[in-house]
Amino acid sequence: MISAKQKLVIRTDLYRCGRGFVIAAIWLAAIQAFFAIVNLIFGGIDFGDLLDDLRGIFSGWTFIASVTPFVYFLITPYSNFKWTIQNGISRKTLWRSQMISAVVITLIQELAIIIFNFLANGSLSEKIIYNNSISIWWGLLFELLLLFETTMTATAIGYFFGLLSRKWKLIVAIGGPILAMFVIYYLTLFLSKLGIFELIGANWSINLTGQAAETAIIVTLITCVVVWTLLMMLVSRISAKHMQLRRD
Counting beta carbons within 10 angstroms of the beta carbon of residue 10, is it exposed (0 to 12), middle (13 to 18) or buried (19 or more)? Predict the structure, then answer.
């Protein structure tokens, strides 16, 4: 049963995330429409080409729908924590509510992507309606899981950054990627010197053709996505539990 406080958080998340998408979509549509009209006037294209240019707006909206939840859950955890804690909403309630918000937003996000893809090129929705192939539905399920995984990753990062002061946010944001690149580079160099990649290349003889191989690949990918998603949920839960109000 969802409590009144949880409903408040969920409604707020849906409203803010939806508003962010609408604002970005309007700006993008205005910019694309402007350049389409300029191309019509000065580029010598006909009206049919103008309609094709305008249909590109839906492709842009597909991209915006893909990234808006990521950006929202990345930058808002601390601000959400501040207003919820000031209104008597506990950290646990906030986190649980945002998990529900993430599920709902991901479902809406997937539906929006399907609709915008159809409006842009008419292919994806047509396949869903007229083709009951298992691969189509596995693809949609995997895309849905990927979207939710991305949102959970953003949530984990957002909550973790919410624990840091401005100084440490800057240090981690700049130093973290640089450190990661150095670690990956020297780890790859070390493994190359050990001959690990040559050993793998010489013994890697798995047949990736056939239904069994395709099923194994799908199951492996889905398992990896699910494990990573659960890990990100754990990180966000731990970070939310230790969130504190700051003065900076």
Answer: buried
Distance between CA 70 and CA 17 in Å, rounded?
A: 10
Handedness of CA 93, 94, 96, 101 (dihedral sign): positive
At 152-191, the pLDDT tens digits run: 999 999 999 888 877 777 777 777 778 878 778 777 776 6
What average pLDDT score do residues 198-204 get?
53
The pTM of this model reads 0.80
Burial of 13 (0-12, 13-18, 19+ CB in 10 A): buried
Distance CA 155, CA 147 (A): 12
**Which contiguous run of DSSP H or E holds residue 92?**
helix 91-121
Written as six digits, the tokens of 163 are 């624990």
Q: How far apart are CA 160 and CA 153, in angstroms?
A: 11
Q: What is the largest CA-CA distance in the chain?
A: 63
